[in-house]
Prior knowledge:
Blueprint: H1 9-16, E1 24-29, E2 37-43, E3 47-52, H2 61-73, E4 91-93, E5 96-102, H3 114-131, H4 144-150, H5 160-178, E6 185-188, E7 197-200, E8 203-207, E9 214-217, H6 218-229, H7 239-252, H8 257-283, H9 297-309
Antiparallel strand pairs: 1-2, 2-3, 3-5, 4-5, 6-9, 7-8
Helix pairs in contact: 3-7, 5-8, 6-8, 8-9
EC number: 2.7.1.39
InterPro entries: Aminoglycoside_PTrfase (IPR002575), Homoserine_kinase_II (IPR005280), Kinase-like_dom_sf (IPR011009), Pseudomonas-type_ThrB (IPR050249)
Enzyme class: transferase
Amino acid sequence: MAVFTPLNDSQVADFLERFDVGRLVALEDVASGTENSTFFVTTGCQSLVLTLFEQGEHDELPFFVELLDYLADHRLPVPGPVHDCHGIALQTLADKPALLFPRLPGKHPKAPNLTQCRALGDTLGRMHFVSQRFAGHRPNPRDLHWLLASHHQVLAYLAPDDQTLMADEIDTYQGVFGDAGALPQGAIHGDLFRDNTLFDGDTLGGIIDFYNGCTGDLLFDLAIVVNDWASDADGSLDRERHDALIEAYQARRPLTDVERERWPTMLRMTALRYWLSRLLVVYVDPPAHELTPHDPERFRTILKSRIAHGALPLPSA
Length: 317
């Protein structure tokens, strides 16, 4: 159970009085997530999601509210936060920061098909096109600077070959990205795995959990998506899913020549980003609650596949 701060019906009923959303009918704990407490809230007129923020920098929450408001205003399928009767979204409940969202339709795709990949690629391209004009700013907390500063913490837990692999990769990234010109930037999701999307059949019902959102390289976001959505069990890329995602994306935001040049290295860097972050959770900074960490081996496998086989050719814009 991923609810760290329990709530009762009376607390939530009182909380809902701040909003014009109807009276509480049912409250349900959500048994998923790794960082926050989440509840499904049903009122007499709608279904909602209530999130209490347990971890992270709470002073960064206004960035997420402003980003979700901005994307929702541009008709992206994101859960724009519900504002109270005074126009305020960010609240306090049980001494924790709290946000209320509309509950979007659908479920997480376990094995996305080509239609679902095209839908996600199209929406991500739309999101990146408009997010370049978003005025808010939050530095990417998992960029190359983070890799440089953090990888030393896990080296003692790795076999010698993996220590060399990680150190050599980071040297490579410094050579490609360190002194090079900037890539196109904007607000990115930062963690757009399958379990952060909801599909109603083949229709994308929503993109959720923007709490890794930040200002960063748009290509970084796309590489995270391709590594998760288009990788087979052995880490290799599936050409059909890869092409479906990128063709739909480029119909909304064509990649620049510099992005196409750096794409193979960006795939490797985002793979190492998740290998490292999962190693840190296992060995250095385990979750405060009884949750099973994600397996780091998955992204070690993807990284080694990208090194051995490179990237697939990018479709034309």
